[in-house]
Amino acid sequence: MIIDYGNRTVGLKIVFFGPAMSGKTTAIRWLFSSLDYADKLTSIENTVGRTMFCDFGTIPFPLNENWTVNAHVWSATGQDFYRSTREVVLVGADGVIFMADSQATLLDENLASWKELMSMIAEEERPLPVVFCLNKQDLPGAVQERHLREHLRLPSSVPVFRSIAKDGYNIMESFQFIFQAAMRASVAAKPIS
User: Most CB atoms within 10 A, among 33, 85, 175, 176?
Assistant: First the structure.
């Protein structure tokens, strides 16, 4: 969290993390569009329209009559070729939304990405709130939460939202959850006066 007393703004960084093609960019685009900030989102893509480095943008939320919270929303590319960029994108994060792909054939990709995130978070000096989106729940044979938790050894303390990013199903809810968790954790570390 970055507090700018001069402009009375609080900056929170929320990162969407997960394997390639799990729906991170789709979720972010839906989020920005639904809040009428689609023109404030930037995507750094390769020539075939896949996220090469990240998507990023800022959504302002009034905290009270004097202060604004700027939610700086980022996605970390899931492609293995760009693995080194994920660590850079995660620097300074206040909360993470992990986007998992519900297809049973991709459980191991979810597991590898989850382990990578956990190893990066382990290096943080403070706890980092994480929420889990079990995305693409509209697909036939989608993995259910219990099976995912078992396969990833996901702690019961990590909330899971069943989501469909292309329709926005549970995207706002997961974002609100991590936004509030990040605010609580950040304010506990740096009270705003």
Answer: 175
Q: How far apart are CA 161 and CA 146, in angstroms?
A: 12
Residue range 3-26, pLDDT digits in tens: 888 888 889 999 999 998 899 989
For residue 21, the tally of other CB atoms under 10 A from its CB is 19
Per domain, the residue ranges of the chain are 2-189
Over the range 41-60, which residues count as b (16 or more CB within 10 Å of their CB) and which as e? bebeeeeeebbbbbbbbbbe
Q: What is the dihedral of CA 188, 116, 168, 137, to 10 degrees?
A: -130
Question: In whole angstroms, what is the distance from residue 162 CA to residue 151 CA?
Answer: 16
Distance CA 179, CA 192 (A): 16
Q: For 47-83, what is each residue's pLDDT tens digit? A: 555 554 567 888 889 888 889 999 999 888 766 655 6
- The C-alpha torsion from 69 through 164 and 166 to 26, rounded to 10°, is 50
